[in-house]
Q: What sequence folds into this?
């Protein structure tokens, strides 16, 4: 049996050689972002997300940490097996979560509630949010923001009046 680090390297390279755009973080194979497109013929078709992946030292025996914004997919932890690889996450797990949401075990309580009460309104809201937020340019902009986030702010830029934030007090 190969070592976990060889398996990790092989799985990451396999993902990079696939149709997914993979961007490493800090030039290592333990952390990277994957450009994920919504499944075809679904409410999410046309949507694009940047999914952050962190591989633990014990990968593939321990599941990867998968996140997008504030959502961390603990669902993958529940069913993870060393038999799976990174392609399974992007070709099966994530599309399945999007295509067959489970409102009785939600990742988002508000969305689940809306889905159970009014499916048409839920579908419309998903489409609207995808059109508004799940765009390629948002991924590019968030990457630029992350890269510029390490820069220090000059004293002039950081000085602001409390009045600018809170407004003027009533006399």
A:
């Amino acid at each position: 049996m190969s070592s976990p680090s060889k398996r990790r390297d092989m799985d990451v390279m396999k993902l990079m050689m696939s149709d997914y755009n993979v961007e490493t973080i800090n030039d290592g194979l333990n952390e990277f972002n994957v450009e994920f497109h919504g499944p075809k013929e679904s409410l999410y078709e046309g949507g694009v997300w940047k999914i952050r992946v962190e591989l633990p030292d014990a990968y593939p025996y321990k599941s990867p940490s998968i996140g997008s914004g504030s959502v961390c997919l603990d669902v993958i932890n529940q069913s993870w097996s060393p038999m799976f690889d990174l392609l399974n996450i992007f070709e099966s797990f994530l599309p399945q979560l999007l295509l067959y949401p489970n409102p009785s075990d939600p990742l988002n309580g508000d969305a689940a509630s809306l889905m159970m009460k009014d499916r048409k309104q839920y579908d419309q809201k998903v489409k609207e949010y995808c059109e508004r937020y799940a765009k390629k340019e948002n991924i590019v902009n968030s990457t630029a923001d992350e890269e510029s986030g390490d820069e220090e702010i000059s004293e002039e830029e950081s000085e602001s009046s409390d009045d600018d934030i809170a407004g003027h007090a009533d006399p």
